[in-house]
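Continuing from the previous page...

OK, I double-checked the sequence for Hydroxyacid dehydrogenase against my notes and this is the correct one:
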Amino acid sequence: MKAVSLMRMDDLETDLIERFPNVDFVFTTGVSSINNEDKQTLDILFGYDSDLDAAFLSDCPNLKWIAWYSTGVNNLPLKFIDENNIKLTNGKGVHAKQMSEFIFAYILDDYKKMRTSYLNQIKKHYDSNMSGKRLSGQRLLFLGTGSIAQNTAKIANTMNMEVLGINTNAHSVEGFSKTYAIKDLKEVISEADIIVNTLPETNETIHLLTKSHFELMKNEALFINVGRGTIVKEEVLVEVLNEKLIRHAYLDVFENEPLTSENPLYELENVTITAHITGNGSENKAEVTEIFIENLTSILNNNKLIENLVDPKSGY
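Thanks. Re-ran it with the corrected sequence; updated C-alpha cells here:
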C-alpha cells in the first residue's frame, strides 16, 4: 500500500514510517511535486494542497482514500470523488479548538471595546469613562451546530450566555438551550444578540442569508462569520453594513478570496477583517495526523474508515 502526502510532515514522517513499516510512504510538497509513477501507484493521498483537482485525481487510478487535513472540503472535486468511489475523510474537530477561541476573541474584543481602546492609544487619548458590556444573559445563535459551535457553546455556557442553534431538522445538541430547523431561521434570528455562522458550504447554504435576514436582526446585533463566505453575497453584506442594519461584523471568510485591495469591505468602519486564519494552529498537523493514524490502522486491520468520514454528495 502506498500513501503519498500533499505536504511535508516534519518529525511526523519518521513516526509514520516506524509505526507502519508495511506502508510505502512518499512525502511531497504538493500535487506539483508528485511524479507520474507515484500517481499511478498511490492508494492514499493525505495532507492538504489547495491545488488538488479532478485533473490530478484522474491520473491516480488506484486511489482509494483521501485523508484531507482541513475541515472544509468544498473546494475539492467532490463530484469526481463520489463518482469514482474514493473515500474521503477530513480534520473535523481539530480546527474547532482554536476556532472557538477566535470566536470568543472576536466577541470579547467587541463587547469590551478593545478596538476603541487601541484607537485611543494611537491617538494618545486616555478615556477612563469608557464602559463595556457583560456577556451574561446575551443570546448567542449559531448557524450550524457542529464541532465548532459545540466547542464554543461550552465556553458560552460558562459565561452564562443563552446558546441557540440552527441545524437541518432542529435536532437537540448538548450545550444548546434550544435548536431550530434551518427553515425556521427567520423566526429566531431576530432574538439573537450575536449570530455566528459555522455552516459548511453546500447547495443549501450558498447565499442562505439575504438582506431580509439582516433586516430582521437587532440593530445592535453582532455578526461573526467563520464558516464560509458564500453564506451571503458580498454585495449584500456591504449594503447591510453601509446601511448599519447591524452594529458590527467580524469576518474571517469571504465569498471571493483573497480580498483584493480594492474590496469595499476595507472601507467600512463597522467591520473587522481577518484573513481566513481562524482554522490555523501550530498543533493542527499533529492532531489531524492522529486521526489519519486511527483510520489507517483500521484500514489495515478491518478495511474500513472509522473517523471523520465525509459524504461527498452532501459535502460534510
